[in-house]
Amino acid sequence: MMPSASKIAVAGTIILLAALLPYGLIAIDQEYLIGLASRIVIYGLAALSLNFILGYGGMVSFGHAAYFGVGAYVVGILSFHAFEGSTLFGVPGSDSALFVWPLAILLSAFAALVLGYLSLRTSGVYFIMITLAFAQMLYFMFVSLERYGGDDGVIMYNGRNQIPGLDLSDEVTLYLVSLVVLVIFMGLFAMLVRSRFGMVLRACKQNEARMLALGCNVQRYKLTAFVIAGSVAGLAGVLNANLTEFVSPDYVHWTKSGDLMIMVVLGGMGTIPGPVIGSGVFLALEEFLPGLFELIGLAAYKEHWRIVFGPLLILVVLFARGGILGLMTKGKSDA
Amino acid sequence: MHSDALLSIRGLSKSFGALKASDNITLDVDDGELHAVIGPNGAGKTTMIAQICGQLEPDTGTVLFAGQNITSVPQQERPAIGLVRSFQITSIFPDFTAIENVAMAVQLNAGHSFQFIAPAATDSDLVGPAKTHLEQVGLADQAAVMAFALSHGQQRRLELAMALALKPRLLVLDEPMAGMGAEETAGVVQFLKGLKGKISMLLVEHDMDAVFALADRVSVLVYGRVIASGAPQDIRRDQAVIDAYLGSGDEEEEHA
Fold first, then answer.
1. Does the structure show a pLDDT above 50 at A44?
2. Which residues of chain A lie closer than 8 angstroms to B115, CB-CB?
3. Of A200, A209, A212, which is closest to B113 when you measure between CB atoms?
4. Could you tell me how far CA A113 lies from the centroid of its own chain?
5. Among B53, B106, B113, the residue to mutate for chain A (most A Cβ within 10 A)
6. Hey, how many other C-beta atoms are within 10 angstroms of the C-beta on A32?
7. Residue ranges of the alpha helices (H) in chain A?
8. Which of A114, A263, A301, B97 has the highest CB neighbour number within 10 Å of its CB?
């Protein structure tokens, strides 16, 4: 189905507003929120990639942060060597985005290829557990990298990566670059899920036995989707490393994978805008709920903001099976 | 062995523990023939189909298709050589529309699906043939209806349309009339009559009227064994068949 004119108008308006957001925040002296906006965009991208396999492909990967982490660590490690002036396997460190970013995406894709190949031999609960186990393996591997800070991670003393003509050290520029990447990938995924490939993926989710009987080599398609999702998560990791100028094993921790899943479910599984909305709501609640606790005189409990967040999530899952996007488009005909 | 057999099953056996679900089954489907398999519940009909179509591997015995030994060919590779099945328990894509269901089958029959750009919904190479197959089974008006919202009989016919879209040489039909009303059954019988001669069929069915109206040859499966095989009128008179099957009807459900 082609998107209708009104849908394109809505999407265009939202993108325009998102692009103007940092200037608005500067105007009202809330510049510190630009960082939050960037996080929302970057996690939105990661959740979008998870949704491709989870929402469209029915692959409940509980280890998606692994690829987010691999992308981030490539940035962190190369930055570390660039700062130190040392080499890794004969390769000098680098701060050049044009070299680092494609390499990071490639290595994330490779990690997804290997782990996906092994994980996709299982299904159901076993698939969930094995993706989780692989991600935790990676977590402990990063913890064991003494040279790169072990538990503490790597601080990028050289600052963010260099892109000719763009100054990523400027918060607004980094936000806009991330936003452009997100919008491009939302478009690409929207195209993908409607293509022949996407139809196969969605059919596999609905009835894999039937796909086999129809003569489909299901595993090849699922693995391809898994690798696509892994590479895009890697790119999100790259952006997040640049945002925070810091990379640590926390990027890969299973709670991160859980957060991404929550974003997908919260926003609306199997939709393109859903995961991004989920990321926005999740991170905004994380940011503002503690303050809200203070405001209503419960400052002592503000670390326990999840007490509110948890039940909220349960309510969404129970009463809004299409997530927040489902609630917003309720009644309207929207596929 | 028939020289012109399209499908030849030789000595097929499969046990689950002490239960012999298939016991030395030997059976042919000739080119252009409609061979029906009947048998009481629990006779091992679906297990036999699962082995023919590669869902289960037999303990012993071989499956020959067009002269090739395909006993160990994975099930997803069988439609490409012309061996296509339908399911006893309706197996469709509930969240696709009727036409998307058939278009998926057309797409898979057209080769690999590593095409990432053009939208499938407006691809005339898919939608065109899908429409034709929906018309064939009388579902043209339901093309845009979500498959889960179709009636049981319509879903059964959708299954047939999907199977046809794979351009089968041999269609293995697992109780295509299961759960249908008399009128719908008559419709499917009429439809299968139209296919006869063009596509070879192995029809597993409970509905005796349908079987005797359609079949060129009937085999009777009881406790995993073929106890009789022959022309419909001979089977009707066969004493062993009457004793084992046509007379009784109170055995247990076969399928999980």
1. yes
2. 195-197
3. A200
4. 18
5. B113
6. 9
7. 5-27, 33-51, 65-84, 97-119, 125-143, 171-194, 196-206, 208-213, 218-244, 254-267, 274-295, 306-319, 323-328
8. A263
Q: Is residue A2 very low, low, confident or very high in pLDDT (cuts 50, 70, 90)? A: low
Nearest CB to A209 within list B78, B91, B115:
B91
Cβ of B55 and A213 within 8 Å? Answer: yes
Q: Inspect the interface and report whether the beta carbons of A202 and B96 lie closer than 8 Å.
A: yes
Smallest Cα distance from B84 to chain A, Å: 7
CB A172 within 8 A of CB A36: no
Residue A227 to residue A233: CA distance in whole angstroms:
10
Using CB atoms, pick whichever of B91, B94, B108 lies closest to residue A215.
B108
Q: Tell me which of A142-156, A200-214, B45-59, B242-256 is least confident.
A: B242-256
Distance between B250 CA and the closest CA of chain A, angstroms: 31
- pLDDT tens for chain B, residues 1 to 256: 445 799 999 999 999 998 999 999 999 999 999 999 998 888 899 999 999 999 999 999 999 999 999 999 999 999 999 999 998 888 999 999 999 999 999 999 998 899 999 999 999 999 999 999 999 999 999 999 999 999 999 999 999 999 999 999 999 999 998 888 888 899 899 999 999 989 999 999 888 888 999 999 999 999 899 999 999 989 888 888 888 766 644 444 444 3
Radius of gyration of chain A (CA): 20
A224 contact residues in B (CB cutoff 8 A): 114
What local confidence, expressed as pLDDT, does residue B181 receive?
86
CB contact at 8 A, A194 and A1: yes
Tell if the CB–CB gap between A221 and B113 is shorter than 8 Å: yes
Do the Cβ atoms of B105 and A214 come within 8 Å?
yes
- Chain B residues touching residue A199 (CB < 8 angstroms): 100, 103-104, 107, 113, 120
Do the Cβ atoms of B77 and A200 come within 8 Å? no
Nearest Cα to Cα of residue B72 among B84, B82, B85, B59: B59
Distance from CA of B109 to the nearest CA of A (A): 8
- What angle do helix axes B152-165 and B98-109 make, rounded to 10 degrees? 20
Contact A195 B115 (CB under 8 A): yes
Do B120 and A217 lie within an 8 Å CB cutoff?
Answer: no
CB A221 within 8 A of CB A201: yes
- CB contact under 8 Å between A210 and B80, yes or no, is no
Bridge-based pairing of strands B68-69 and A154-155 is unpaired
Q: What is the pLDDT of residue A4?
A: 78
Residues A274-331 have pLDDT tens digits of 999 999 999 999 999 888 888 887 777 777 888 888 888 888 888 887 888 888 887 5
Distance from CA of A327 to the nearest CA of B (A): 19
Is residue A153 within 8 Å of residue A15, measured between CB atoms? Answer: no
Between A65-84 and A97-119, two packed helices, what is the crossing angle to 10 degrees?
140
Compute the nearest-CA separation of B120 from chain A (Å): 5
pTM of the model: 0.90
The pairing of beta strand B60-65 with beta strand B68-69: antiparallel
B122 Cα distance to chain centroid: 30
CB count in 10 Å sphere of residue B234:
13
